[in-house]
Amino acid sequence: MPQGQPLTVPDDNLTTRQRRNRPLLMVHTGDGKGKSTAAFGLALRGWNQGFRIGVFQFVKSAKWRVGEQSVLERLGALHTETGEGGPVEWHKMGSGWSWSRKAGDVEDHAGDAAEGWAQIKQRLADQTHDLYVLDEFTYPINWGWVDIDDVVQTLTNRPGHQHVVITGRRADPRLIEAADLVTEMGKIKHPMDAGQKGQRGIEW
Questions:
Q1: What is the H or E stretch that residue 78 is in?
Q2: Kind of pairing, strands 163-167 and 131-135?
Q3: CA 178 to CA 93: how far, in whole Å?
Q4: Do residues 117 and 146 lie in contact, with contact meaning Cβ atoms separated by under 8 Å?
Q5: For 82-138, how does the pLDDT look when each residue is reduced to its tens digit (9 = 90+)?
Q6: d(CA 167, CA 171)
Q7: Contact yes or no for 81/63 (Cβ under 8 A)
């Protein structure tokens, strides 16, 4: 894409503006570091454009508060106070979804993942958010907790103008086929290879 120009222009009867503004399904996969980081960076960019942001973390423990969560929640509060940017919701599966009345740690991870996906489906139908970050969503799909065919059908047929970005290793080929943008993060070197654990400001 030299100078940001597409290599081909499809014969789809759309104007340049219409084609540019189509909602995207994006997948960040691969064994390398940076999948979630890139998705949260996209959320920051969307917030600046006034997007309604919804983050749904399917594997992260509720006890592990990543730095991006603090930043985006503060930006959500700023929106509430001043109208700047857009609203932000952040939900984790680790202690039961925040809309659920269940307390404590999740005992049935498969059931909780299904509950999270059902909530996302409803939000997609209601066009609640402009950008959905489904963080580490490839894992419950791969483990059979969420049906891949339902995921592909729902995301392919979502109404309105809703962007979705999914992160996680080993993305299902059907998800990759349905996506508009797929990035594979490849690991070449990592500090853990030399025995170094994660550190503040880099991993969280």
A1: helix 67-82
A2: parallel
A3: 25
A4: yes
A5: 999 999 999 988 656 766 655 545 457 888 899 999 999 999 999 999 999 999 999
A6: 8
A7: no
